[in-house]
Write a structure and sequence with these properties.
Layout lengths: L9 E4 L4 E5 L6 H4 L6 E6 L3 E3 L4 E6 L5 E6 L2 E9 L9 E3 L6 E2 L4 E5 L1 H6 L3 E8 L2 H4 E6 L7 E7 L1
Keywords: Kinase, Phosphotransferase system, Sugar transport, Transferase, Transport
GO molecular function, one term: kinase activity
Main location: cytoplasm
């Protein structure tokens, strides 16, 4: 009963297989300066974005290039590619809708890497905690392996 109000830590996994990089290395100042929050990025080797944790879909961009999941009040934005909003959804297919509940590993978005690259867009996929200041007490970041947990979050 006394632990009723204690929120447990949870893990965020890479949403796509590939080389994991620190968010400060992303070639976009909005992300690399952590203007939207802290996180990490992946240079994708596959074309499928998976849920990085259990949660609820709270945002799905009309242009299909970004999705946000909420877990324990923490919002996790997954942004596929750089400047891909300019493609207006071309090259992307979504497999979920807003308010869906998802489990870690569920398919969220697939993308046509050849099309996106032919449009001179980078595939760098960013994972960012957009409401860190309000909802996150602590983040432990490890960037060694894209098949394992990358962030451990302790909600406030």
């Amino acid at each position: 009963m006394f632990g009723l109000f204690n929120k447990k830590k949870f893990e965020i996994y890479a949403p796509v297989l590939g080389k994991v990089i620190d968010i400060t290395e992303v070639e976009d100042a909005v992300f690399s300066s952590k203007m939207l929050g802290d996180g990490f990025a992946v240079e994708p080797e596959t074309d499928c974005i998976l849920a990085p944790c259990d949660g609820q879909i709270v945002l799905l961009a009309g242009t299909k290039h970004a999705v946000a999941i909420e877990k324990d009040g923490v919002q996790i934005l997954i942004h596929v590619g750089l400047d891909t909003v300019e493609l207006n959804g071309a090259g992307f297919e979504v497999h979920i809708k807003e308010n869906d509940s998802v489990k870690q590993g569920d398919k969220l978005i697939t993308f046509d890497r050849n099309y996106i690259l032919s449009q001179e867009k980078k595939l760098t996929t960013i994972v960012v905690l957009t409401n860190m200041a309000d909802k996150v007490k602590n983040v432990v970041k490890t960037l060694e392996d894209s098949s394992g947990k990358i962030l451990v979050i302790e909600p406030k």
